[in-house]
Amino acid sequence: MAKVLALKGDKVLINSKDDFKNFVKEIESKATYKKPKAFGIARLEKGQLNTEKTLQASFALVNYEENFGSFAVLFEAFSQRGLDIGKESEAVLELEKEDIDFALACFKPFLNEAGHKNIDVLKSVKKNFSKGKFAFVAIFEDEKPKTVECVYLKLYLLSSKKVALRSINLDGAFAVLPNVAWSNDKPIELEYLRQNEIELKMSAAYPKIDFVDKFPRFLAHIIPEDNTRILESSKVRMGAVLAAGTTIMPGAAYVNFNSGTTGACMVEGRVSSSVVVGEGTDIGGGASILGVLSGTSGNAISIGKKCLLGANSVTGIPLGDNCIVDAGIAVLEGTKFFVNDKTELENLNKGFKFSKDIYKGIELAGLNGLHFRMNSQSGQMSVSLNKKAVKLNEALH
C-alpha cells in the first residue's frame, strides 16, 4: 500500500476521505500503535502553589471504544515528536500547538462538515490555546487509575453514560484525587489558602468556599437531559449516573460517584457509592441505601424496578423488582424476618424455596415482590408479598 503520509513544510498532504482512511490504516499498522479503550482532550486546572499538579480536568467530549480515526491522528502527532503513548495502561500528554495544527491538517477533508465533535474540540483548543492548559488523555487498559486526568476521564465516562455503573475500575481513585477547596466550581489548594490567608482576608480577596472535597459536583461538568431535575447541585457528585427523568430532591437526597439510576426515579434519600437503582423506584425522604463501605460486607447493592423505600428506612441488601421497605425500618444482612405468603412468593421467585419461617435479610437478597414490615405492637420484623403497585407521578418525571 502506497504511503499517504507526506510532509511539505508543516503541512500534511491528505486531500480526500480515502486519503484519510488509508492514512489511519497506516498508523494502525505500526508496531507501536495500540488501540485505546477511551480518550479525550482535557482542559486542566493546576495548583496555585504546585503549578505542575493537576487539580481538575474538564472534558467537552469523551470517546469510549469509538472514533479510532481521531485517536490515530493524535497518536501520529505525538509520534512525530518522538513520543510513544501506548506503553502504559494510561497516558497523559500535554498538547503543543504543533500537535493541534498537525491534527487539523490531517482532518482537512472533514473541516467544513458539521457533526465531527473531535474536530470541533481541536478547533476550540486552538482558539483558546495556552501552553500547559490542555492534555490528551487515553486509557488502554482498565486498571487502577494513576493520574488525576485519568480519574476524571473515567468519571466522565460514567456520568455521560458511555459506560455502565460498576463496569469501570475506580479502585484507588479517592487516593489519586487531591483534597481541595472549591469556589464557584474552581479548585484551590488548601495550602495556598493557609499561606496567603492574611493577605487574602485583609485585602478582601478571600474566596467564597462552597465546599472542600476531592470530587467536584456533577452539574459543574455534565449537562443532564431536559426531563432530569437536580434541585440542589451539592446533592450529586461527579461520577454519578442519572437516567433521563430522574428527580433529585433537596434535603436528605444524595447520589455518590459510581452510583445512580438506570431509569426515571424519585430520589429523596441517600444513594451510596456503587448502588444501582432501577427504573420507577422511589427513594423516600431520608431513606438510605448502604454502600460498599457502610455495612454490606463489601457487596454492592442493586435496587430493582418499581420499588419503594419508605422515609427514613435503611436498606443493606439487594432488592429485586416491586419491593417495598416500610418507613423507618432497617433491612440489613443480619436482620431476621418472619416470612408470610410463602406460596405466593415462591411462585413469583422461581427456583427459591421458602423452607423455613425465619430468614436473615441476606438470604432474601435480590428476590422480587417483597414487602418488609415491622409489627407496631410486637416489634416483629416480617416480609410478605407486596400487593401494592409503586408508580411515580408522571407529571414529575
Quickly list its features.
Alpha-Beta Plaits, five-stranded parallel sheet, 3 domains, alpha/beta, Wheat Germ Agglutinin (Isolectin 2), domain 1, ten-stranded mixed sheet, 397 residues
CATH topology group of the largest domain: UDP N-Acetylglucosamine Acyltransferase, domain 1
Radius of gyration: 26 Å
CATH class of the largest domain: Mainly Beta
Widest sheet: strand ordering: 10-11-14-17-20-22-26-27-24-25
The helicity comes to 10-25%
Which oligomerization state do the chains in this entry correspond to? single chain
CATH homology superfamily name of the largest domain: Hexapeptide repeat proteins
- The low-confidence parts are none
Report, as a whole number of angstroms, the end-to-end distance. 56 Å
Approximate shape:
globular
- Write down how many β-strands occur, each being a DSSP E stretch of 2 or more residues: 27
Structural class: alpha/beta
Major β-sheet annotation: 10 strands, mixed
Overall number of structural domains: 3
Per CATH, which architecture of the largest domain? 3 Solenoid
The number of helical elements comes to: 9
What amount of the residues lies in strands? Answer: 15-25%
Mean pLDDT: 94
